[in-house]
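pasting for ref
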Amino acid sequence: MAEETNHNEAGEVAPSTVDKQAPTVAEEHAPSTDSPEATDIPTSNAPDPKAANPETNPNAAGTKTAPPKREKPAAKADAGEKPAAAKAAKKEKAPGVEDKPFTEFIQQDYLPALQKAIAQQGVKDLQLSFVKQKIPVKGMEQSGECWQIVGNYPDGVRHFNVYFPDETIQGKKAFSCYEGKQPSTIESFLIDERKITLDLLIWGLMQRLDGQKWLGRN
């Protein structure tokens, strides 16, 4: 009977069981194909969804909770935009003395201020009055009455009148003056000014009297 030869003694290497099975396993789970195909062979890089902790493994089976949405910061208010309350609190401009009724303004504001300004120029005891009468100019006796400021100097010779035919300081105005006799001419007064103010009325008459050399320093 022939003695059986041991593979190790004969120098041959016995085939490994893994080597015998590997081709079969590879053929069953990874068939050759020209296009990539998914297999059911687990890999070391992809944890088993059933075994992994769903809190730390994004591939874990189960319902995924979407991350909370960040709320957008509220838009900053425009630096130049003022709150409605601040706009409402803005005070309206106080009315000036010129906004008073015509006769009230003349008697309460214009006459006292004019008297003071003329006295400061050295004219004492000047009589000022505010009356509604006919225009004391030759040829205008039938023109009707209008409001006017009448000024009489202490000597009784010098006289002047400021006329307000429209009964408003913003309307037409005229001036006349005379010495010893009734005036024959009447002239416009402050016709180039867009808005008449108390100071402008005082300045205009002072300029006119100064032109006549009727102020104390003349």
